[in-house]
Amino acid sequence: MQLSLDTDIVIQSWSPGALRVNDAVVTNHCFVHGRSVYEWQPNAIEALTPADFSGALALHPEIILFGTGNNQQFPGIELVTHIMQQGIAFEVMDTAAACRTFNVLNGESRAVVAALLV
After folding, report:
1. What is the pTM of this model?
2. Measuring CA to CA, how many Å separate 43 from each of 49, 50, 102, 106, 110?
3. In the chain, what are the domains?
4. Which distant-in-sequence residues (6+ apart) come within 8 Å of 51 by Cβ?
5. Average pLDDT, stretch 62-66?
6. What is the pLDDT of residues 75-108, one digit of tens each?
7. Can you tell me the distance from the alpha carbon of 114 to that of 91, in angstroms, rounded to the nearest whole number?
8. In this structure, are residues 9 and 22 in contact, taking their beta carbons and an 8 Å threshold?
9. Judging by DSSP bridges, how do beta strands 63-67 and 30-33 pair with one another?
10. Distance CA 106, CA 15 (A)
11. Is the dihedral of CA 50, 45, 42, 39 positive or negative?
12. Is residue 71 a contact partner of residue 34, using CB atoms and an 8 Å limit?
């Protein structure tokens, strides 16, 4: 599933199981970028690999915000190293913080992708 909008995306709210993006409700894990939302089916956090982030990397971000649900949980160092070796910043935070940070950076026209566990 891909949701494309005519205006820049604003993440209006997040609660466990649902994300409101420009009045549309998203109930799946997703990548949010510019004017699009892409469904995402990652492995469990402790089993994430670079392949889980291939969709986000294909969007050529300067930063990836990884929202890990209610609590901040760090993925393995191999994944973080792989992304950062490509010159992409990788920030891990709870999903609510990732949504707020995405709105600020996207509003500044930064090349940002939010990888969100809903």
Report:
1. 0.93
2. 8, 11, 22, 26, 27
3. 2-116 (3.40.1230.10)
4. none
5. 98
6. 999 999 999 999 999 999 999 999 999 999 999 9
7. 10
8. yes
9. unpaired
10. 21
11. negative
12. no
The CA distances from residue 81 to 39, 40, 59, 75, 85, in Å, are: 24, 21, 18, 11, 6
CB-CB contact of 65 with 32 (8 Å):
no
Sheet with 18-21: strands ordered across: 11-15, 18-21, 24-26
Residue with tokens 């891909």: 2
- Alpha-helical segments (H) within the chain: 54-57, 77-84, 95-107
3-state class (DSSP) for residue 118: coil
Buried b (16+ CB within 10 A) or exposed e, 2-16: ebeeeeebebeebee
